[in-house]
Design a protein that fits this description.
By secondary structure, the protein is an alpha+beta fold. It has one domain: Peroxisomal Thiolase, Chain A, domain 1. 34% of the residues lie in helices and 26% in strands. The protein has 12 helices and 18 strands. It is globular, with a radius of gyration of 20 Å. It binds 3-hydroxy-3-methylglutaryl-coenzyme A. 3-hydroxy-3-methylglutaryl-coenzyme A binds next to helix 2, helix 6 and strand 13. The site of 3-hydroxy-3-methylglutaryl-coenzyme A has 30 residues, from helix 2, helix 6 and strand 13.
Length: 391
Amino acid sequence: MSGDFTIGIHDLSFATTQFVLTHATLAAYNGTPVGKYHAGIGQRSMSVPAADEDVVTMAAAAVAPIVSRHGSDLIRTIVFATETSIDQARAAGIPVHSLLGLPSATRIVELKQACYGATAALQFAIGLVRRDRSQQVLVIASDVSKYDLDTPGEATQGAAAVAMLVSADPALVRIEDPSGVFTADIMDFWRPNYRATALVDGKESVSAYLQAVEGAWKDYAEQGGRRLDEFSAFCYHQPFTKMAYKAHRHLLQYCGSNIDEGEITRVIGQTTAYNTVIGNSYTASMYLGLAALLDNADDLSHQAIGFLSYGSGSVAEFFAGTVVPGYRSHLRRAAHHEVIVRRQEIDYAKYRELHEQSLPVDGGDYRVPRETTGPYRLAALSGHKRIYEPR
Ligand code: HMG
């Protein structure tokens, strides 16, 4: 390992949607044994956006507590990672910046590479802070995972936004060099511009993910990274929580290590608490894993965490972070618990109605039904523009 390990995640906050559909409800509708969802893929429920929620409203809700704790004077860059883009030209970070009244002296950009995008954003943020240690960068990961109804992917939907403040001398996690990186040209999952739902070859996507785990780890080891046994926990991208277990088992096999299921549960189990009830939130998923780990594990001060970020298509990165002593007094455990339990459970009919709904594309004036009780909402469309407001 080499380099400056004094830059990393200073604060982390997440938000999710107004509604939640349980896998028990989905199973009762489609006749799937519920054990397939609960035990087979490791999912209990999934967040479903209200008509007036999207990646911008979730992102603004995730960012607001960070701005209220730290102010915005040092934030000069916002990097918004998403694969649920609302505009082909304009960055979704701009309406977030506006809703929060952030200073005009800010650069904003949107990044995309499937679920991997937020890790690229984090690495770019670290580079910017390394250039000027007095600046902070706001990294936002916000996505809605949506597949066609009555497909195998449907049980792996979800939605959330994670906001992270990246700075020098962070309060939560220092991010280390090196990174191990990997790219392969694979069409395992994709969403052409004209589609609202993703297309996926489920089995191919699982094996592409495992291939990427190997590739990113191999590069990480070649770059002089830590040994596997130095890590106390591993945050994997979690399209469904059982994928993290599969991935870690695969990594152990690849490294010629013992497959001890108890040990795998020890290093993975606490990263899954939020994803199992929120579902796949694409770019935000791995960082929800980190939030769950920090919020719920015993003291992790000084311990190393491994991160495996995967984005279909495919790009992956393995990197390490060290937990900063004293981090527990900077967590948002109660607020995170609240955003999960405040969701309103919906029945299958309401879920289907929301799934099938799409916003008009005629450019006329349209008031979006008032549904969310979150802090920000998509209020209207007018002249092909989205109009947001505090609720
Ligand atoms: P499927 O065909 O519905 O399910 O597809 P299955 O038959 O493979 O069963 C799933 C597991 O449940 C199996 O366990 C079964 O044995 C078990 P495994 O063999 O995997 O250990 N099972 C049961 N367990 C208990 N009781 C039962 C029972 N029945 C079966 N009664 C699949 C599952 C995940 C493929 C599907 O949901 C899908 O296509 N999802 C979308 C794609 C996806 O999530 N891929 C993951 C890797 S790609 C990725 O992570 C990137 C992504 O996030 C996008 C991005 O990067 O932007 C997706």
